[in-house]
Write a structure and sequence with these properties.
Signal peptide (chain A): 1-31
Number of strands of chain A: 15
Organism (chain A): Myceligenerans indicum
Shape of chain A: globular
Strand order of the largest sheet of chain A: 7-6-8-9-10-14-15
Keywords (chain A): Signal
Number of strands of chain B: 2
Radius of gyration of chain A: 23 Å
Distance between the termini of chain A: 65 Å
Strand content of chain A: 15-25%
Distance between the termini of chain B: 50 Å
CATH class of the largest domain in chain A: Alpha Beta
InterPro entries (chain A): ABC_urea-bd_UrtA, Leu_Ile_Val-bd, Peripla_BP_I
CATH architecture of the largest domain in chain A: 3-Layer(aba) Sandwich
Largest sheet of chain B: 2 strands, antiparallel
Strand content of chain B: under 5%
Radius of gyration of chain B: 19 Å
Shape of chain B: globular
Structural class of chain B: mainly alpha
Low-confidence stretches of chain A: 1-8, 23-43
Mean pLDDT of chain B: 90
Number of helices of chain B: 11
Protein name (chain A): Urea ABC transporter substrate-binding protein
Oligomer: heterodimer
Chain lengths: 422, 293
């Protein structure tokens, strides 16, 4: 019996146990809890050193793990912004000294590394985070240490921390305008497809409220677990519901499987367009241009935005990181966040958090996406909303624009139909 | 009509599960090796399809070329793994699990370094795009193709095990290794060939999956748990059990998902498997042998 020391049942049990263990690892990764309160003293004395001719800032992105694929791009554009600012003479005459930390796609690590950047590296501000889970984990750290975080990704809204600046879109700058566009196009029924976690569920709550107030019928609402790879049933449901359009809040690899299935089932952008809020230029290549050509996206920036600021940004990015690298909304929001912080500091004449926050209101920057204005009250920024169509070239081309920057309204207080959502 | 559409969806999902699990039913089921890198052999197959398409260009020709090449690539990786690591650990299943898990992580990182972190795209040939319409029912051609491919693989494997000298040797070693060795069969050589075929089937599955899902370094991790579930539920050591379990799980997932949601269906399927294994720990079909193990 040389090779088999375990009985068949033993092997089965072992395999079952390891599968269970895998499941636990996966679950704990999602539901990681953060115990930041105990680590942080309630009032913090800032240790930021501004006496020399440099000042430290922190970049906190996932450079490893599942999110690395997205967050690396944000890290690259932050790096580009820092180099530009330094070449321009720095901030208040001081060169930026960047300290990079790896969030490892793990909310607890984000919280821990944020604490390290603030208390041990003594950075003046931190830039980064991607998933809402990572932001929620870092929030108490920044609040208790009274430090600053610049968060560059569109998110589900319903948050406004005095210690965070949100430079991505909140819901009234991305989802609501996309719905306005669909209503304008005569869409009267929608099918909602999303991944099963906080962002899609919150987004769909908002969409349901909007639909009810605007006479749009929601004919179906389906959620797939993150990493779901078989969409035949969901596409069957979409097919038989026969809506005017599909609103897609799927995240990650699921999008590839969904769009391949969608095409193979004979559905197309002509008869039932899909509007996505998580697919940017980076993802189009992996899904396959052929599978997604003609479908719609909602963002605040596309690589194709026609402005001198964007031309300069795209050219500088490609020169630094390669001609084949596209630029996308979160990258642009991150790039803009560093320039906004620099402008706030210049206006305040100080690196101190209280001074910067006090000076923040009304700070503007001519970003690649267009003119943006910081709202001092809720710490979001006014952004122009764009609906784009994915072209055969793999880039996204604007088909509709809000023309004017939309004031951020994270709690949707200015919308009657949204009452009771927050 | 919805019931028929779901029936097809279930069979199709079953065929995907079957392709992913078929190789595992050889390496895990027949040899008792818990190979956590099986998913990465699928990933290697998928990247083989990507490379072949880059070289050949035409999507149809490249798919047909990639299937045998994916088999060879997956098989060679398996052979390498068996010859360098696994054969030293036949007595230590827990160590095998950890080592192959490590190998899986290494292979993922290699893929990330060679092909880049973002997903890549493999175009489906024109003759596989769109759906066959039968009375208001749309059967995607890619899914019909995978259904047929799974059937071909099962039949080929069953024939190979049943009707060839090699198959007889494999079965002999599985049923009673000592007796097989005493009869002059080299169990070492048989192990290698079995592992080659099992891993090669993972490569084929990887090529087929490029038609349905994303092609990235973590492709394998999406399927490995399901593949093990199928083999365990089917009863290790029997291809028949794997086929039945894959079909049953596919149909169950499809119909539960239709009447509830994808997340709930997944939970219910897991609960059903746990309950089933309580009643029948040996799985659906088990091999009766006279060995003491």
């Amino acid at each position: 019996m040389r090779p088999r020391s375990t009985s068949r049942h033993g092997v089965t049990r072992l395999a079952t146990a390891s599968l269970a263990a895998l499941g636990v690892v996966a679950l704990s990764a999602c539901g990681a809890r953060v115990d930041s309160g105990s680590a942080a003293p309630t009032t913090a004395e800032s240790c930021v050193d501004t006496s020399g001719d440099t000042v430290k800032i922190g970049f906190l992105n996932s450079l490893s793990g599942t999110m690395a694929i997205s967050e690396q791009t944000v890290h690259d554009s932050l790096q580009l912004a820092a180099e530009e600012i330094n070449a321009d003479g720095g901030v208040l005459g001081k060169q930026l000294d960047v300290v990079s930390e790896d969030g490892q796609s793990e909310p607890t690590v984000f919280a821990e590394k944020a604490g390290k950047l603030i208390t041990s590296d003594c950075v003046a501000a931190v830039f980064g985070g991607w998933t809402s889970a990572s932001r929620k984990a870092m929030l108490p750290v920044f609040e208790s240490q009274d430090s600053l975080l610049f968060y560059p990704v569109q998110y589900e809204g319903l948050e406004s921390s005095p210690n965070i600046f949100y430079t991505g879109a909140t819901t009234n700058q991305q989802i609501v305008p996309a719905l306005d566009y669909l209503a304008e196009q005569g869409v009267t029924s929608l099918f909602l497809v999303g991944s099963d976690y906080v962002f899609p569920r919150t987004a769909n709550k908002i969409i349901n409220a909007y639909a009810q107030a605007h006479g749009i019928e929601i004919v179906g609402e389906e959620y797939a677990p993150l990493g779901h790879t078989d969409f035949s049933t969901i596409v069957n449901k979409v097919r038989s519901a026969d809506a005017d359009a599909v609103f897609n809040t799927l995240n990650g690899d699921s999008n590839v499987a969904f769009f391949k299935e969608y095409n193979n089932a004979g559905l197309s952008a002509d008869e039932m367009p899909v509007v996505s809020v998580s697919i940017a230029e980076e993802e189009v290549g992996g899904i396959g241009v052929k599978n997604i050509e003609g479908q719609l996206t909602a963002w605040n920036y596309y690589q194709t935005v026609d402005s001198p600021e964007n031309d300069a940004f795209v050219e500088a990015f490609k020169a630094a990181y390669g001609q084949d690298r596209p630029t996308s909304d979160p990258m642009e929001a991150a790039y803009t966040s560093l320039h906004l912080w620099a402008a706030m500091v210049e206006k305040a004449g100080s690196f101190a958090v209280d001074d910067v926050v006090a000076a923040a209101d009304g700070v503007t920057y001519d970003a690649p996406e267009g003119h943006v204005v910081v709202n001092g009250e809720n710490h979001h920024i006014a952004k122009t909303s764009l609906v784009g169509e994915i072209g055969a070239d793999g880039l996204i081309h604007t088909v509709w624009s809000s023309e004017q920057p939309i004031e951020p309204d994270p709690y949707l207080e200015g919308y009657d139909w949204a009452e009771g959502l927050s | 009509m919805d019931i028929i559409a779901q029936l097809f969806a279930g069979l199709s999902l079953g065929s995907v599960l079957l392709l992913a699990a078929l190789g595992l039913s050889l390496t895990f089921g027949q040899m008792g090796v818990i190979n956590m890198a099986h998913g990465e052999f699928m990933m290697a197959g998928a990247y083989t399809a990507f490379v072949v398409q880059g070289v050949v260009g035409d999507a149809g020709v490249s798919l047909l070329l990639a299937l045998p090449l994916g088999f060879v690539v997956g098989g060679l990786l398996g052979l390498l793994l068996e010859a360098t690591l696994i054969h030293r650990m036949y007595r230590r299943p827990l160590d095998t699990l950890l080592v192959t898990w490590g190998v899986a992580l290494v292979l993922q990182q290699v893929a990330r370094d060679v092909f880049g972190a973002p997903n890549v795209d493999v175009r489906a040939p024109a003759w596989l795009s769109g759906a066959v319409e039968i009375g208001g029912l749309a059967l995607p051609r890619t899914r019909l193709f995978i259904l047929a491919l799974a059937a071909v693989c099962v039949v080929a494997l069953a024939l190979a095990l049943r009707a060839t000298p090699l198959g007889r040797r494999i079965r002999a070693v599985v049923q009673n290794r000592d007796l097989a060795e005493a009869s002059g069969i080299s169990s070492r050589a048989t192990d290698r060939v079995t592992f080659f075929i099992g891993s090669g089937l993972a490569g084929i599955a990887g090529v087929a999956l490029t038609l349905l899902g994303s092609i990235g370094p973590t492709l394998g991790t999406n399927y490995i748990v399901d593949a093990f579930l199928v083999v365990v539920a089917g009863g290790i050591g029997q291809i028949k059990g794997t086929v039945i379990a894959a079909t049953a799980l596919g149909l169950m997932q499809a119909f539960l998902e239709y009447s509830t949601t994808a997340s709930v269906a997944k939970v219910l399927v897991f609960v059903a498997i746990v309950a089933f294994l309580q009643l029948r720990p040996q799985g659906l079909v088990s091999v009766r042998t006279r060995s003491l193990a």
